[in-house]
């Protein structure tokens, strides 16, 4: 049955077209039949690393002409790809793993090819972000994908502070050599938030660590193996604060302070003075600004 599906996918492939093909993020079996059909038919395969892509093609017995299209030469390769498309060829774009142009090269190539008047078609497949979200237990339908966390601590702290009261989940990538520092900083700024760390998704040592940010940090520090491999973080939304119980006095104090200070600083000071919940005070001030 699957051979009929593969044949049908192959019959639908069009010349003069760039196909942006998602490849497995770990387990080779995660490739789609449509991706195999495109890669078998492609006259040219643009690869982030030709050695990595050659291993994937060889695993499925596919022989294709590979060229390197990386971040440093992506703009220049637009002309090469467009010339191939103009000649009626089928071109595929792949990255080392996952979907091209998502924290990987590919966006400039797709834009350049489309601007030249050729079709650019996505071939959907494995996604580390969606795979992690699917097991994170996030019930909200919206989320924010941040890409890779900043390498510098100061900028990273600014990101975490912006996420303190967001009502949606945040998904982000982090590298092995920075994961402990990033988690330590997150634990300091967002200690009570729920976090899922997914590591090596679909691979032999696939691991999921779930808990408060502090608990995830402790688990990583307790096992050096947890600082290896590809990583995705999903920070759960901030819990909604109960603002209805704020006293008139607390609201008055917050309104006075919020007129002179940023909401976050005003809420911290108002909580100290009134004894009210800091998050509730912050949410109340934000609601007041919306009404205004």
From TrEMBL:
Reaction(s) the record says it catalyses: cytidine(1402) in 16S rRNA + S-adenosyl-L-methionine = 2'-O-methylcytidine(1402) in 16S rRNA + S-adenosyl-L-homocysteine + H(+)
Residues making up the signal peptide according to the UniProt record: none
Annotated ranges, domain RsmI HTH: 245-289
One term of GO molecular function: rRNA (cytosine-2'-O-)-methyltransferase activity
Tetrapyrrole methylase domain location: 17-216
Main location: cytoplasm
Keyword Methyltransferase in record: yes
InterPro entries: 4pyrrol_Mease, 4pyrrol_Methylase_sf, 4pyrrole_Mease_sub1, 4pyrrole_Mease_sub2, rRNA_ssu_MeTfrase_I, RsmI_HTH, SAM_MeTrfase_RsmI_CS
Compartments, record wording: Cytoplasm
Alphabetized CDD domains for the sequence: RsmI
Alphabetic keyword roster: Cytoplasm, Methyltransferase, rRNA processing, S-adenosyl-L-methionine, Transferase
EC number: 2.1.1.198
Cellular component terms (Gene Ontology): cytoplasm
Superkingdom classification of source: Bacteria
Free-text function comment from the UniProt entry: Catalyzes the 2'-O-methylation of the ribose of cytidine 1402 (C1402) in 16S rRNA.
Family according to the record: Belongs to the methyltransferase superfamily. RsmI family.
Designated name of the protein: Ribosomal RNA small subunit methyltransferase I
Organism of provenance: Eikenella longinqua
Lineage, top ranks: Bacteria, Pseudomonadati, Pseudomonadota, Betaproteobacteria, Neisseriales
């Amino acid at each position: 049955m699957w051979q009929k599906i593969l044949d049908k996918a192959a019959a639908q492939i069009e010349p003069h077209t760039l196909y942006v093909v998602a490849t497995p993020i770990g387990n080779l079996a995660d490739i789609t039949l449509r991706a195999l059909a495109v890669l078998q038919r492609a006259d040219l395969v643009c690869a982030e690393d030709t050695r990595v892509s050659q291993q994937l093609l060889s695993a499925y017995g596919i022989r294709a002409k590979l060229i390197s299209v990386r971040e440093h030469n992506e703009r220049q390769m637009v002309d090469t790809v467009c010339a191939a498309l103009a000649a009626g060829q089928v071109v595929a774009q792949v990255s080392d793993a996952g979907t091209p142009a998502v924290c990987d090269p590919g966006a400039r190539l797709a834009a350049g090819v489309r601007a030249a008047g050729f079709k650019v078609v996505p071939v959907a497949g494995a996604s580390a972000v969606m795979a992690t979200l699917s097991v994170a237990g996030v019930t909200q339908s919206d989320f924010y994908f941040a890409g890779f966390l900043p390498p510098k601590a100061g900028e990273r702290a600014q990101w975490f502070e912006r996420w303190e009261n967001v009502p949606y989940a945040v998904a982000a990538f982090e590298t092995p050599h920075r994961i402990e520092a990033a988690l330590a900083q997150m634990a300091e700024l967002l200690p009570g938030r729920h976090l899922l760390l997914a590591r090596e998704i679909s691979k032999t040592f696939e691991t999921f660590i779930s808990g408060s940010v502090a608990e995830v940090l402790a688990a990583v520090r307790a096992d050096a193996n947890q600082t290896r491999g590809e990583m995705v973080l999903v920070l759960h939304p901030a819990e909604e604060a109960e603002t209805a119980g704020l006293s008139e006095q607390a609201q008055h104090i917050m309104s006075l302070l919020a007129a002179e200070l940023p909401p976050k600083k005003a809420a911290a000071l108002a909580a100290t003075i009134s004894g009210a919940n800091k998050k509730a005070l912050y949410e109340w001030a934000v609601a007041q600004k919306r009404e205004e």
